[in-house]
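hey so i finally got around to running the thing on that chain from the lab meeting. sorry it took forever, my laptop kept dying and i had to restart like 3 times. anyway pasting the input first so we r on the same page abt which one it is
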Amino acid sequence: MKDCEYVIHAAANVSYWRGEEDWQMKVNAEGTRNVARAAREARVTRLLHVSSVAAVGLPSGPHQPADEDFPFNLEDSGLTYHISKRRAEENLLAEVARGLDAVIVNPASIQGIERTAGLLKSVRSRRIVPCFSGGNCIVDVQDVVTGILAALQRGQTGQRYILGGENLTFRMLGEKAAKAMNVNRRFVLIPPVATALAAAVLEPWARVRKRRPKITFMIHYCANRFQYFDSSKARRAFEYAPRNVDAILMEHLETTAASARQTSR
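ok and heres what got predicted. didnt touch it at all, straight out
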């Protein structure tokens, strides 16, 4: 960091598997402590820490999205990723108290090219589409980057800003994908007991194989809750204006179609 003016810290272990919890805590919590200390000692102008809404906590239902002041409620949940990201923020703020100029952003569920393509492919390839019972806050990666740069310039020292988008159930997300592609699909909810049983069976087997399972306890826990968040603070502070899911899907489809036409020439 010598001679650096700004530092953006976006490195993290994002595994949702308890088989990697020790390593995850070291990377996310202790790693952030090391980055923050180094930035302070190098006298950088500002450090921006890319945290996660996981560090905010999970609201109890769909009607009250969590904001930056939401009391963290996952200490005893077993969600190592969420706890490690919370510890990372605490370690960063300890360096702020020692003189570091730093700001935090908390992106929600980031929808990039690969994830959007995966959603559309999943809905396109099935007439009956399974979906989890909970919901998520969907935001496009381009809007997150715009929010990061705005927070770097205009965010207040020691403050956190949620960079979210549209709050949707997983079923609603699938329905929007089907509508964007103009296909008719039937959506069937996966009951929470099914994801719980899958995690109970697959996690022990995965430890034997030393390979991450498709369904873990943390995936089960989050898939059946409403991970809804409020980005009003970022809107007020630096005019954060994320696009909705319909716009994200249409942009991806148009870009894919244009690329296919170019390739066929």
